[in-house]
Design brief:
single chain; mainly alpha; Fumarate Reductase Cytochrome B subunit; two-stranded antiparallel ribbon; 2 strands; globular
Length: 252
């Protein structure tokens, strides 16, 4: 069954604008809605915190909490990718290998195609990161809850390292694209605005949805830390992390 978006699209899906006649006008338009931006920066924060705390028993509860946060964020992003605004929807930016190759070729020639939303190479990184996040979270959950053997820890670590590599490539791509397009793409993910024509912009930022997502994440963090032990020993923190994992499992 074909899923319809709850938000109307004003124009055809995001297409490359690489001819002089169709180059984006020099004005800022709203491209990224608030839920996409909040999702993006919460993922950045959660992955960085989870990765840095991975080897520490002292911060095990933080590691577990941020891992579960990432999984929940990805579930939300999948739903928003089906029902959200124009450039949030997967249908607007997920492309096949031919489109990715064409974009990378133009990028290497110094004549990159302009896309109001995600470009094909960026879309490939996004899909990979979403899939890897689910793999990392699932293997981490299984490992903490002793569902499988020690081999799950190896899979968890390997998937996390692969995710870090994809993040690195994504950052390089953002920096390169920002330089070639003369447009700060990282800043655009903060403000939600990029260069484009008025008809390309989305109509609403949906800040209410972003606020609800942020409240849900902060509420989950508060709930996790309420279950933390008062002691300072690493053994107690490790036990608390395991208990929190079991509680999350029982709640599903």
């Amino acid at each position: 069954m074909k899923t319809k978006s709850a938000f109307p699209a004003s124009n055809p899906l995001d297409t490359p604008l690489n001819t002089p006649a169709s180059s984006p006008a020099g004005r800022k338009i709203l491209v990224w809605d608030a839920p996409v931006r909040v999702f993006h920066w919460l993922m950045v924060l959660s992955f960085a915190g989870a990765y840095l705390s991975a080897e520490s028993e002292r911060w095990r509860l933080l590691h577990v909490t941020l891992g579960y946060t990432m999984a929940g964020l990805v579930v939300f992003r999948i739903l928003w990718g089906l029902l959200g605004t124009r450039y949030a929807r997967f249908a607007s930016f997920v492309r096949g290998p031919k489109a990715v190759g064409r974009y990378l070729g133009a990028l290497l020639r110094g004549q990159p195609e302009h896309h109001a939303g995600h470009n094909p190479a960026g879309a490939l990184a996004i899909v990979a990161l979403l899939a890897l996040t689910l793999g990392v979270a699932a293997s981490g959950w299984a490992s903490y809850n002793e569902v499988g053997g020690n081999w799950l820890e190896d899979i968890h670590e390997a998937a996390a390292n692969l995710m870090l590599a994809v993040v690195g490539l994504h950052i390089v791509g953002v920096v390169l694209s920002s330089w070639l397009h003369r447009e700060n793409l990282a800043l655009a993910m903060l403000s939600g605005r990029k260069l484009g024509t008025p008809e390309e912009g989305i109509r609403r930022a949906w800040r209410s949805v972003a606020a609800l997502m942020l409240v849900a994440v902060l509420g989950f963090w508060w709930q996790q830390w309420q279950g933390a032990p008062s002691g300072n020993g690493p053994e107690e923190r490790s036990a608390a992390a395991t208990q929190q994992g079991k509680s999350a499992r029982d709640g599903d």
